[in-house]
Amino acid sequence: MTTFNQHMQSALTLDEIRALAPSAFAVEKHSSRSERYAYIPTSAVIEAMLEEGFAPFMATQSRSRIEGKSEFTKHMLRFRHPDSATNGTISEVVLVNSHDGTSAYKLFAGIFRTVCANGMIVADKLTGSISVPHTGNVVDRVLEGSFKIVRESRKSIETTHAWEALQLTSGEQAAYAEAAHTLRFADAEGTIDTPITAAMLLKPRRREDVGSDLWHTMNRVQENVIKGGLTARAAAKPGEYRGRQVTTRQVKGIDQDVRLNRAMWQLAERMAELKSGNAA
């Protein structure tokens, strides 16, 4: 589980980040780390990012059931650079780190859609993720990686424009939603036990979400998967008058958020390849 903050319309202050993701301000590494572990607090990276013009707009951290680890646990921040906005879509740098050994510094390309205050994470095929281990000059390597992601994320923005022009049939939209439905709800054996249907993932939340193109289809499904709030009633079990009502929860775990976002982007990439006849 995590403490979580939706994307803000204005940049977060250091005090706001500290309240949302206190582990980013850990004053030392966790006791389980060896001497080879270079302790560079995320707060030092944040300050360096601010000096280079990046602004933080979201912060979250994982909770830990292990006593003494909550102040060192995994955290995620999303930064924007002044050069990153294009027609209602903003490219972001997504930073994940921990001070308990569960994560190196990891950088991903993100996309933020202003109309729905919805953030995505781009899959590796377009802009490769960057991993910076806790050794050597961590701050400079994170900054270098962040600027690289900003440069390469323009490809992602161009891709979203191409997806807007790619119309899907109702069957293709359903196929995308069914794949995302499995990603979100299937257990380790692939079994799905929820009254929430794949078709519900295609439901628009606002007028601007309506559209049969790949970009709008992906946006609707991604937002419904990540933000939750979908409600359905399960079939009544023997002896029950009626089944229980189920409402999906927002995805707040950092690992699950990254996994689902990247997988849905990859699904869209694959759909685009199939539609254009470029599938291998």
How are the SSEs placed, and which strands pair?
Blueprint: E1 2-3, H1 14-20, H2 42-51, E2 55-62, E3 75-80, E4 85-86, E5 89-97, E6 105-113, E7 118-121, E8 130-132, H3 138-164, H4 170-185, H5 214-227, E9 231-233, E10 245-247, H6 254-276
Helix pairs in contact: 2-3, 4-5, 4-6, 5-6
**Which oligomerization state do the chains in this entry correspond to?**
single chain
Structural class: alpha+beta
The SSE order reads EHHEEEEEEEHHHEEH
Binned strand content: 15-25%
Domain unit count: 2
Largest sheet: 8 strands, antiparallel
| Percent of residues in helices | 25-40%
Shape: globular
**Average pLDDT figure:** 83
Structure write-up:
The chain has 280 residues and is of the alpha+beta class. It has 2 domains: 2-154, no CATH class; 170-276, no CATH class. Helices cover 35% and strands 18% of the residues. The chain is built from 6 helices and 10 strands. The chain has helices spanning 14-20, 42-51, 138-164, 170-185, 214-227, 254-276, and strands at 2-3, 55-62, 75-80, 85-86, 89-97, 105-113, 118-121, 130-132, 231-233, 245-247. The strands form 2 sheets. Strands 1, 2, 3, 4, 5, 6, 7 and 8 form an 8-stranded antiparallel β-sheet that branches. Helix 2 crosses helix 3 and helix 5 packs antiparallel against helix 6 (254-276). The chain is globular. The two termini are 38 Å apart.
